[in-house]
Every structure is written in structure tokens, then in C-alpha cells.
Amino acid sequence: MDKSFKVKVNNTFDFDISEAELSNLDTLQTSKNGYHILQNNKSVKAEITEADFNNKTYQISIRNHIYKVSISNKLDLLIKDMGLSVKTAKQIDFIKAPMPGLILELHVKVGQEVKENESLLILEAMKMENSISAPRSGTIKSIAVKNGDAVEKNQLLIEFEN
């Protein structure tokens, strides 16, 4: 299955880029943040001047022009469609399935203290293993699934204590 990415530049231009298109780029890292890119016999030098890996946003300098770029994959878009984001994650008291799938592994138990971004479980969906992480630090109040369970989109998976 081909992965694709939604790329937004300067909050104005939207692009869909496939994994195949990315593999056709000839890139060479020339410094810690510098890259030489060759595509369709056109050469471009780019430098990543700022990077926010958690939000998948970057500021890139090409030919003395600055571009703000955000990159999203299918899971990021599903999470956004559900109304979840880094800004709202601190208020979340439960985790719901972002898509239908199969629970492969549970990494937590009821009463366990977890830290923000700690892996809670592995959900297999569309032949991909997706790690579902804690949106905030807290204590696990209940777990509504077990290993091997098939889940539907928006089904309750884990609840946090308030």
C-alpha cells in the first residue's frame, strides 16, 4: 500500500505527495540542516531553518525565500477530523479508536501512571501498525479492549482518571 502525505506550504498551497514521488527525488544532505535536491534535472539547495517535529511543521529556506511547511499523513488527518490536536490533547480523558482495526498489543493496565506520549497500545489498521500514545500524563481508569479485539472507529479504548 502506497503511503501519501498532505503538504501545506505557507498555509496557502496544498499538495498530495506519494511515497513513490518521494522515492524519485534525488536528495543529498550537505550539512546538518542543508540539502541538495535534484528532481526532473532541476537542482535546488534547501535549508531547514526551523523544525517542530511534534507538530510536523518546518521552515525551509530556498533561494533566499522562506517557506512554512506542514506535513500530515493519513493518521494525522484522521485525528484532526476527529477534532483532536496537540492543543486539545491536555483535556482528553479518554482515547477512542481513530479508525477501525485490531488491537495487537496493550502496553498499560488499569491504575498505571503514564506519561504524555507514552505508547498505550498498538492498533493494526490498513495493514499498518499504529502506536496510540497518551495525550497527557495521568492514571489509567479503565481499558475497554483486550489483545485481539476488533474495534470500530470512535470506539472507546482507554479512559483516564480526571
Automatic annotation (TrEMBL):
Keyword Cell inner membrane attributed: no
Entry keyword set: Biotin
Keyword Chloroplast carried by entry: no
Signal peptide interval: none
CDD domains reported for this sequence: biotinyl_domain
SUPFAM superfamilies per the UniProt record, alphabetical: Single hybrid motif
Pfam families cross-referenced by the UniProt entry: Biotin_lipoyl
Lipoyl-binding domain residues: 79-161
Source domain of life: Bacteria
Database matches in InterPro entries: Biotin_BS, Biotin_Carboxyl_Carrier/Decarb, Biotin_lipoyl, Single_hybrid_motif
Coiled coil: none
Name of this protein: Biotin-requiring enzyme
Organism: Algibacter pectinivorans
